[in-house]
C-alpha cells in the first residue's frame, strides 16, 4: 500500500504530526494528489544532482498542469484556483533552487516513515493485536475511496449521456460543439484506469493480509488453545480471530459488488483497450479465490468440563468457522457418541458395549464469561452391555 494511504489510516495524534510536517515546508495538496508520482522518485539521488533536480522540478510542474486540467474537466473551480496558486508559489520559491525542493521532499518522506514506525510500535505495546487491526484498516480505507470513485464515475456517465443526447438533438458539427463531450470521455477513461488500478492494489493488500492471518495469527491462536487445554492460562475466546477473518471476507464481498457495479457501467460506456473488458475475468477470479481461501479456514478448539483441562487422550473438539457472515449463519450442534474399538472385532473375545440414552445432540451457545462455545448435557444415561 502507498505510504500516503498508510498515514491517513493512523490515529489523530499521528495525523497532527503529519500536518505539522507539511505546515510550511511543502504543500500537502501536492502530496495528496501526486502521491504515487512522488513516491516513485528517488529523491535522495535527486537532492545531490543539480541537473536531475531541475528536470524533476519541471516534471512536477507538468504534473500540476495535468491535475489542473482534470479539475477543469470536472468543473472544480476551487481546486483549479488552489493549484494555480500552488504552482506560482513553487516557481517563486524553487525555480532557481530546485535542489532545495528535492531535499525537502526527501526529508518529509523519511519523517513519514518514522511516524509510521512509531505508530506501529505503539500499537504493539498497547495491544498485541493492534498491528493486525491496523493492517485490516487498509482494505476498508481503499474500499471507501473506491465507493467515491464509482460514484464520481456514475455522475460522469450521466453527464456524458446528457451531453451526447443534446449534441445529437442539435445536430451541430465542429470542434467546439463536440469539445464538452470529448472532455467528459477523456475524464471517464482516466477514472476507469484509476478504479482498476485501485482494485488491483486492494486485492494485493488483501492477499498479503490473508497470508499473515493464516500463516501467523491462526497458528498462534491454535497454540494458545492447546496450552489452555492442558492447564495453561485460559484463552478459549476466538472472537478476535473471527472478527479479523470476517472483516477481510466482508471486504472481498464488497469488492465483488464493486465489480458488478463496474460491469453495469461498462455496458453504457466502453472503448478500445478498456481496462475493465481486459481485466474483469482476472479480477473476478482473484477475488473469488481469495474468498474461497478465507472461507476454508476454521479453528479447532477443545472444551473442558467445570474448568478442568480436557484429558489429552479423550479431547472434546469442535471446528469453529472463522468467517461470520449473515449468509453463513447457522446453529452449531454437538453430538455425544462412544468411540468405536480400533482393530479387528473378531480377535476380541469379549468387549463392553455402551448405549447413550436420552437427547445426545445439543446446540452450542456462547458462554458470557469467556466467549467460548459450550453445550450442557444433564440427562444422559450410559447403558453397559457385555457381549
From TrEMBL:
<protein>
    <submittedName>
        <fullName>Signal transducer and activator of transcription 1a</fullName>
    </submittedName>
</protein>
<dbReference type="InterPro" id="IPR001217">
    <property type="entry name" value="STAT"/>
</dbReference>
<dbReference type="InterPro" id="IPR013799">
    <property type="entry name" value="STAT_TF_prot_interaction"/>
</dbReference>
<keyword id="KW-0963">Cytoplasm</keyword>
<dbReference type="Pfam" id="PF02865">
    <property type="entry name" value="STAT_int"/>
</dbReference>
<dbReference type="GO" id="GO:0003677">
    <property type="term" value="F:DNA binding"/>
</dbReference>
<dbReference type="GO" id="GO:0003700">
    <property type="term" value="F:DNA-binding transcription factor activity"/>
</dbReference>
<dbReference type="InterPro" id="IPR036535">
    <property type="entry name" value="STAT_N_sf"/>
</dbReference>
<dbReference type="GO" id="GO:0007165">
    <property type="term" value="P:signal transduction"/>
</dbReference>
<dbReference type="InterPro" id="IPR013801">
    <property type="entry name" value="STAT_TF_DNA-bd"/>
</dbReference>
<dbReference type="InterPro" id="IPR013800">
    <property type="entry name" value="STAT_TF_alpha"/>
</dbReference>
<feature type="coiled-coil region">
    <location>
        <begin position="146"/>
        <end position="173"/>
    </location>
</feature>
<dbReference type="InterPro" id="IPR015988">
    <property type="entry name" value="STAT_TF_CC"/>
</dbReference>
<dbReference type="Pfam" id="PF01017">
    <property type="entry name" value="STAT_alpha"/>
</dbReference>
<dbReference type="InterPro" id="IPR008967">
    <property type="entry name" value="p53-like_TF_DNA-bd_sf"/>
</dbReference>
<keyword id="KW-0539">Nucleus</keyword>
<keyword id="KW-0238">DNA-binding</keyword>
<dbReference type="GO" id="GO:0005634">
    <property type="term" value="C:nucleus"/>
</dbReference>
<keyword id="KW-0727">SH2 domain</keyword>
<keyword id="KW-0175">Coiled coil</keyword>
<keyword id="KW-0597">Phosphoprotein</keyword>
<keyword id="KW-0805">Transcription regulation</keyword>
<dbReference type="InterPro" id="IPR012345">
    <property type="entry name" value="STAT_TF_DNA-bd_N"/>
</dbReference>
<feature type="domain" description="STAT transcription factor protein interaction">
    <location>
        <begin position="2"/>
        <end position="122"/>
    </location>
</feature>
<keyword id="KW-0804">Transcription</keyword>
<dbReference type="GO" id="GO:0005737">
    <property type="term" value="C:cytoplasm"/>
</dbReference>
<dbReference type="Pfam" id="PF02864">
    <property type="entry name" value="STAT_bind"/>
</dbReference>
Amino acid at each position: 500500500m502507498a505510504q500516503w494511504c498508510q498515514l491517513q489510516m493512523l490515529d489523530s495524534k499521528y495525523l497532527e504530526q503529519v500536518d505539522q510536517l507539511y505546515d510550511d515546508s511543502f504543500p500537502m495538496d501536492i502530496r495528496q494528489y501526486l502521491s504515487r508520482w512522488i513516491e516513485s522518485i528517488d529523491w535522495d539521488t535527486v537532492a545531490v544532482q543539480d541537473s536531475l533536480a531541475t528536470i524533476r522540478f519541471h516534471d512536477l510542474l507538468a504534473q500540476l498542469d495535468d491535475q489542473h486540467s482534470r479539475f477543469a474537466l470536472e468543473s472544480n473551480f476551487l481546486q483549479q484556483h488552489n493549484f494555480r496558486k500552488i504552482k506560482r508559489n513553487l516557481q517563486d520559491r524553487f525555480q532557481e533552487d530546485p535542489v532545495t525542493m528535492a531535499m525537502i521532499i526527501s526529508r518529509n518522506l523519511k519523517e513519514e516513515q518514522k511516524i509510521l514506525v512509531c505508530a506501529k510500535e505503539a500499537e504493539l505495546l498497547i495491544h498485541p493485536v493492534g498491528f493486525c487491526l491496523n493492517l485490516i484498516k487498509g482494505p476498508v480505507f481503499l474500499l471507501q475511496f473506491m465507493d467515491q470513485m464509482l460514484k464520481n464515475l456514475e455522475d460522469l456517465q450521466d453527464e456524458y449521456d446528457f451531453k451526447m443526447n443534446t449534441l445529437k438533438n442539435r445536430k451541430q458539427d465542429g470542434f467546439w460543439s463536440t469539445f464538452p463531450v470529448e472532455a467528459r470521455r477523456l475524464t471517464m477513461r482516466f477514472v476507469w484506469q484509476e478504479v482498476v488500478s485501485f482494485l488491483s492494489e486492494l486485492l494485493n493488500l488483501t492477499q498479503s493480509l490473508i497470508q499473515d492471518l493464516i500463516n501467523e495469527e491462526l497458528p498462534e491462536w491454535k497454540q494458545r488453545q492447546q496450552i489452555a487445554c492442558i492447564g495453561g492460562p485460559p484463552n478459549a475466546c476466538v472472537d478476535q480471530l473471527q472478527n479479523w477473518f470476517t472483516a477481510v471476507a466482508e471486504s472481498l464481498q464488497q469488492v465483488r459488488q464493486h465489480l458488478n457495479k463496474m460491469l453495469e457501467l461498462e455496458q453504457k460506456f466502453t472503448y478500445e483497450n478498456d481496462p475493465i473488458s481486459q481485466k474483469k475475468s482476472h479480477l473476478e477470479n482473484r477475488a473469488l479465490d481469495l474468498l474461497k481461501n478465507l472461507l476454508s479456514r476454521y479453528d479447532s478448539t477443545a472444551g473442558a468440563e467445570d474448568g478442568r483441562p480436557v484429558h489429552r487422550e479423550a479431547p472434546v473438539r469442535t471446528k469453529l468457522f472463522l468467517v461470520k457472515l449473515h449468509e453463513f449463519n447457522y446453529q452449531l450442534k454437538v453430538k455425544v457418541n462412544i468411540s468405536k474399538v480400533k482393530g479387528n472385532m473378531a480377535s476380541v473375545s469379549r468387549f463392553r458395549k455402551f448405549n447413550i440414552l436420552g437427547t445426545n445432540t445439543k446446540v452450542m451457545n456462547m458462554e458470557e464469561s469467556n466467549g467460548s462455545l459450550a453445550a450442557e448435557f444433564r440427562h444422559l444415561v450410559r447403558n453397559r452391555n457385555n457381549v
